[in-house]
Design brief:
The complex is a heterodimer of chains A (215) and B (231). Chain A is an all-alpha fold and 215 residues long. Helix content of chain A is 73%, strand content 3%. A two-stranded antiparallel ribbon of chain A has the order 1-2. Chain A is elongated and about 60 Å long. Chain A starts with 10 loop residues before the first strand and ends with a helix. In chain B, strands 2-1-10-5-6 form a 5-stranded mixed beta sheet. In chain B, strands 3, 4, 7, 8 and 9 form a 5-stranded antiparallel beta sheet that branches. Chain B is elongated. Helices cover 23% and strands 26% of the residues of chain B. In chain B, a hairpin with a 5-residue loop joins strand 3 and strand 4. Classes of the chains: A mainly alpha (215), B alpha+beta (231). The interface between A and B is large, with 61 and 59 residues.
Chain lengths: 215, 231
């Protein structure tokens, strides 16, 4: 028996409601952190905006809140499953990272490609480092001066790195309309999934779905 | 945790990356001030002369961070600037900028330490020793502290009279080899070398002798009344 020909507009479930909520709340907090960080760090912005204590409080509390959606997300099975996928690197992930033609689809990618996995790990780790170093800066009684100087040093560089990661993340999202739709509505077209995440598409695409039957 | 069919489990690289970053961050907190000092010695002179200002965008060396606690701070010039010395004194006085410039100046090279950890090493400061202004005002017997006011309209700070008389506390007119710029708290600010930056009141407009230290802007927000730098 030959497999049925696939209609163009079939959709696959990619992200659950809980996962999308975690993403968008984290995104909002991250943007607040980045905008306030720019005001706190850039001298001409600092003087123009003033109100240092208010800006600082917004920055600090948005930063404290940043891990919260990710921790709350652990209550969702779909979120935990995706976290496990992001954590594990297969041999083909390393091949994908090294390949110059990684987008041609010859290396079959799972739900997340190796770049997404790397971005997730780097952003998560850097966020925790920013939280820890930020705590030392905000509560000066916690550590001696040289550690606070070190914390400022670490906070500056990790913030810069996270800024680059976030910009890269947004740049890739801007280039890929269907990926954005996945995070907005939770669903992606089967054709997109087969092109970008072939191994995942094969796993979850068990045949025509509800939309199909109506078509 | 295993994944559904098709995708091999693989090594937990994500977790290792997170733990690696945490280790790097921890090492940076403990050893970062040493690295930072090296970078600052190396890049500080270049950064100070960088016409593009691009180096300052990166956290490479020691750079001042500009704090302002209000919306906008008025700009004061030699013509409009006034410093009043008042409170528990026999001789209240008002000084103009030329008055202060005409007084004997003292210069010092000393570090600026913010309580949050950022620092600028070997900064050139010059100005009138605060003790000279205090002596002229003749504080009364019950005066035990000095309170600074800023013409930003909000900021105040205090220190004990004995600390205010230290030789390393100056009413600064010069910073980094030139007049104290507006963003640095000019034309006149306090610089107290042995205390954290929040004691070095910017945009100084008033010096008031008081009975006891009056908690100021940052003390109300959690910083210690005694701003002495402790290592």
């Amino acid at each position: 028996m030959t497999p049925p020909t696939v209609p163009a507009r079939r959709n696959l479930d990619r992200f659950s409601r809980a996962e999308r909520a975690v993403h968008w709340i984290t995104a909002t907090l991250m943007i607040v952190c980045i905008v306030t960080a720019a005001v706190l760090y850039n001298g001409s912005l600092s003087i123009k905006v003033g109100h240092r204590h208010v800006v600082e409080l917004i920055h600090v509390y948005a930063g404290f809140a940043l891990p919260a959606p990710m921790l709350l997300g652990l209550a969702s099975a779909a979120y935990r499953a995706d976290l496990a996928r992001l954590n594990r690197f297969s041999p083909s992930d390393w091949r994908w990272l090294r390949s110059r033609t990684r987008r041609d689809g010859l290396i079959r990618v799972g739900k997340f490609n190796a770049g997404q996995k790397l971005n997730a790990a780097l952003t998560a780790g850097a966020t925790l480092v920013l939280l820890g170093s930020g705590l030392l800066m905000f509560y000066p009684g916690l550590a001696r001066l040289s550690w606070r100087t070190g914390a400022t040093f670490v906070h500056d560089w990790f913030a810069l790195a996270v800024g680059v990661l976030v910009l890269g993340h947004i740049a890739y999202a801007i280039k890929d309309r269907e990926a954005r739709r996945g995070m907005r509505t939770g669903r992606v077209s089967a054709s997109w999934a087969r092109a970008e995440h072939a191994a995942w598409a094969e796993d979850v695409d068990v045949g025509p779905d509800q939309d199909d039957k109506r078509a | 945790m295993s994944e559904e069919g098709g995708e091999p489990a693989g090594a937990p690289v994500g977790r290792r990356t997170v733990l690696g970053l945490l280790a790097l961050g921890g090492a940076g907190i403990v050893g970062g001030s040493w690295v930072q000092n090296g970078l600052a010695r190396l890049l500080g002179p270049i950064e100070a002369r960088d016409p593009t200002g691009l180096i300052a965008l990166f956290p490479l060396g020691d750079v001042f961070r500009f704090y302002s606690v209000t919306g906008s701070v008025p700009t004061k010039t030699a013509a409009t600037y006034r410093l009043t010395v008042s409170g528990l004194v026999a001789r209240p006085a008002t000084y103009t900028l030329p008055d202060l410039q005409a007084m004997p100046q003292t210069a010092l090279v000393s570090d600026f330490h913010c309580i949050t950890g950022w620092q600028v090493l070997d900064v050139h400061w010059a100005g009138v020793p605060l003790s000279a202004l205090l002596d002229r005002a003749e504080p009364s017997a019950e005066a035990t502290a000095v309170r600074f006011r800023s013409f930003d309209g909000t900021y105040t700070e205090s220190m004990t009279l004995s600390r205010a008389r230290r030789r390393d506390v100056i009413v600064a007119l010069q910073l980094l080899g030139g007049p104290v710029s507006h963003d640095h708290g000019g034309p006149v600010r306090i610089y107290a070398a042995s205390m954290y930056g929040y004691k070095s009141t910017k945009w100084l407009s008033g010096i008031e002798l008081t009975r006891g230290e009056v908690p100021g802007y940052w003390e109300h927000r959690g910083y210690p009344l005694d701003g002495t730098i402790k290592n």
